[in-house]
Amino acid sequence: MENREKKKKNRYRDRKKSEFTFGKWIKQKKVEKDLTPKNIIKWKYSQMQDKPFGFVDVEWVEKGYFVIERNRNGAFDGDEVEAQVKIYNGKEEAVILKVLKRTERNVVWTFQYSKKKSKSGEEFGFVVPKTGGFSTDIFIAGANIGEARNGDIVWVEITNYQGKNPAGKVIDVLWKKGDEVDVEAYILEAGFSQKFDEDITEDLQKKKPNTDDSEINRRKDFRKMFTFTIDGEDAKDLDDAISLVKKETWDYKLYIHIADVAHYVEEKSKLDKEAFKRWTSVYLADRVIPMLPEELSNHLCSLNTESQKLSLTCEALLSKSGQLVKSTLYESVIESNFRLTYKEVDEIESWKINIWDELFCGIKCTQELLDNLELSQELKNKISVQKVEQGVLNFDFPETKLILDENKKIVEIKEYPRYRSNKMIEEFMVTANEAVSRKFAQYPFLYRIHETPLEESREKLIVLLNLFNIDYKFKNFDTKEVWELLDILNWENNLSEWQKKFLEKSILRTLSKAIYSEENQGHFGLGVKFYSHFTSPIRRYPDLQIHRIIKEKLQWKLNETRIIHYKNILPSVAVKTSDQERKAEKLEYKVRDYYICDHYKDKVWQQFEWIITTMLPYGCFVQLEDTAEWFIELIPKIGQSKWYVYDEQLMRFDNNKLNVQLNLWDKLNVQLDEVDMNLLRVNFVIV
């Protein structure tokens, strides 16, 4: 009897030791319980950077299922896996059963030569990820080292994923030891390239502006219609232009002209395959990586002034109240009269630019331009009123803009400028995207879908709102209700501006991410049943894809064979383009973080004043006035006592030892402790 009690105590003690403590898991036997007969999931594994765990990301689960290191089963970041969801100590976790498909993986490595030799007497080495894009070192046998030397930055092909350390082969030495490695490493890792193959470049030289009479004559001719573009000052790929007419009935005819890229990029051509591989133009802090070569994106297709351009035109009829009535599409030819900037349009509206003043494009402002912009603003205001009644969600958070000098060093970090005319162009483009999607709903098409928020996310939002004494009762949790909630926050006098921003971000986080799909599921954020991306074929492949479908329909070529063809390819196009979109976003953030880290690396030990903007169980995000935002880790290091304790209900950290509380929107004096250029992490400590 005494021995039995002793065993029970030992089992209890072993269970208490099973807690995860600062990156180290103690092996033990847990009580497992299957969720349901349908507890097998197939999705992608995401490895946490510099942490011994990851998640199986699932579309219908907000944060994915936690995967402890020993349950990873050889999976690496981005791999498609089959996993079983189980209950561990009352919490759902995933056990990876097998890897279904390895992701296309590009990782920049640092080669480390081993002074030891294998049992057979052979030399060997390891490569470790230079940019934190992989979770383990790769073994390199002596025969696979090539010309790599200790400390070189190398390109490696993984040849065998089995074992504790997968095996690989050095393909190329990218940088020698001591060379400065910049954002090129991140671009390589993301799978993008600034350059195009020579055969693509040679093929482009044969393409010329289409002035053939037969091509022009078969198109709708809008060359005499007053037309203008509005873009940023540094934009060179102008893919949309606007014309507007007010009818005697007070209705509006809005013409959205989009560059006819599909005319120059034939399906299955080398250029088309390269565009599909890239998916998008990537706009980085120091450069643009184009989807299409510059000859096309900036010249042949770009809707520049003083030259006739082939286009696809959406003619949208809107009522005098701004509602979309019907639309017609044409293959067209246009000639833009003005190339305007957002800043200029705002200045014209504010009477800072007047008639006969010279504009950015070198052309003088005319009365016709002023009249057209005034009419455009009038229509934009009416569309905006309709959007309010419809309940369209309008999140407008500041974006960080980096100003670099000729040496690619930051001279200023500031909020990205936002002009009133940005909203005007957005409203017109959304109108075209919705109109085109509605018109082609009966044909195979590619949609931009935004699904209804998950039930789990809604419940967490309600708890958060109660914490701030916001009592809002959801009935359907539709777009209109979320808009009403945002409006209540905007007019709530008991909330500070920081509190409002935090709650707006929290509401945004409850929403799912928009993706591409061959199946129409509507767009929750815009509150519309039909939505596609039509307006940017120079820089987005999905737009180019649906342009081909539209053109075939207009040319009476969309027969049964072509319909079957599109039904077969659109699912893979949707998956690929959604995946590439995520890669492009990650690259944009990583390059931005690289330059900000580089900017701060000479400021170690300096003190700053920050504001806490977000609370998480293991730390908080803080923000400076220049909009730069960083994370402060508040969990203790190994061997330290637990000073800060997170109160999830009150969303604050308590430090009883120092008698300190950390709350949202508190101003903190922090000291820069470390800048890790490898992990792109800036670590601060509270002073």
Q: Strand share of the residues? A: 25-35%
Q: Label the overall shape.
A: globular
Largest sheet: 6 strands, antiparallel
Query: How many strands?
Result: 32
Rg for CA atoms:
28 Å
Q: Report how far apart the termini are.
A: 56 Å
The amount of helix comes to 25-40%
* Mean pLDDT figure: 84
Low-confidence stretches: 1-37
Domain unit count: 5
Helix/strand class: alpha+beta
Annotation field: number of helices: 14
Topology:
Blueprint lengths: L1 H15 L15 E3 L5 E8 L5 E5 L7 E4 L11 E9 L2 E11 L6 E6 L10 E6 L8 E4 L11 E8 L6 E9 L8 H7 L7 H7 L8 H5 L2 E2 L6 E4 L8 E7 L5 E8 L10 H9 L3 E2 L4 E2 L4 H7 L7 E11 L5 E12 L2 E4 H8 L17 H24 L9 E5 L5 E6 L4 H20 L7 E3 L5 H13 L11 H13 L5 H14 L4 E3 L23 H14 L5 H41 L6 E10 L2 E5 L5 E5 L11 E3 L4 E4 L4 E4 L3 E10 L4 E6 L1
Parallel strand pairs: 9-11, 12-19, 13-20
Antiparallel strand pairs: 1-5, 2-3, 2-5, 3-4, 5-6, 7-8, 7-10, 8-9, 10-11, 14-15, 15-18, 16-17, 18-19, 21-22, 23-24, 25-26, 25-31, 26-27, 28-29, 29-30, 31-32
Helix pairs in contact: 8-9, 10-12, 11-12
